[in-house]
Amino acid sequence: MTTTTHILTTFEESLQALRADALMMASLADRNFENARKGIFERDEDWCNTVIADDEEIDVLEVQIDQRGIALMLKFHPMASDLRNVVSTMKLSVNLERIADQSVNIARRGRRLLNHPPVDEVAGLEPIFRFAGMMLKDAIRAYAESDSTLARSLKERDKELDRFNRDYAEQLTALMAQHTERIPCYMDLIFIARFLERVGDQSKNVGEDTVFAISNVETRHVHSS
To answer: Three-state secondary structure along 111-133?
Structure first.
């Protein structure tokens, strides 16, 4: 009985260390996303460069989480909900790394925009940024607090983000015929909106993995009628 308790405590400590790494990675990914936003709206190359430079730290954490997770499974052979918690944390790190990559993509497009005069249409990105940013924050909170209701909400919100992106791209495409000199800027803005849509996709994935970890319910391929 004493041995069983000792093993369980050690597993819990290992799992908490894994989760702590994941939450640190989440904080960094959220910070990079915010810095990318500043780079766009403040037209500040320094913020863009910071996002690109800080991405390496997130990559290192992803590798560390992957290694810790594998080591934990090999050592303790967790079953059922314990195993789902480990796997969902490892998958969280993959999604966070992809979100960080999208922030880098945004920052690079932001630097390209600095080569041109400001265009009013950049303001149309603001609600898309805000919506994607809230999805990211809520995905992290759902994981951290094991909030299944919040996690489930991300799927429908991702569809709304898709509509934001589609409408914005159509608006800019229509303007290209009127302002041919702005086409390079409009293309960068369309790509940035697409990167924001992908942030929403990854946040939705975090929500789906969180639901699975909590309740063993698969929601990835369930379509609403």
So the answer is: HHHCCCCCCHHHHHHHHHHHHHH
Structure tokens at 76: 């303790």
Token pair for residue 200? 């929403």
pLDDT tens sequence across 70-97: 999 999 999 988 999 999 999 999 999 9
Q: Is the pLDDT at 179 greater than 90, yes or no? A: yes
Predicted TM-score (pTM) of the model is: 0.91
Closest CA to 169 of 152, 134, 138, 194: 194
Nearest to 187 by CA among 33, 37, 195: 195
Contact 16, 84 (CB under 8 A): no
CATH number of residue 22's parent domain: 1.20.58.220
221 within domain boundaries: no
Q: How many structural domains are present in the chain? A: 1
Task: Please name the amino acid found at residue 50.
Answer: T
pLDDT tens digit string along 54-76? 999 999 999 999 999 999 999 99
Question: For residue 35, what are the domain limits?
Answer: 2-215
Contact 210, 154 (CB under 8 A): no
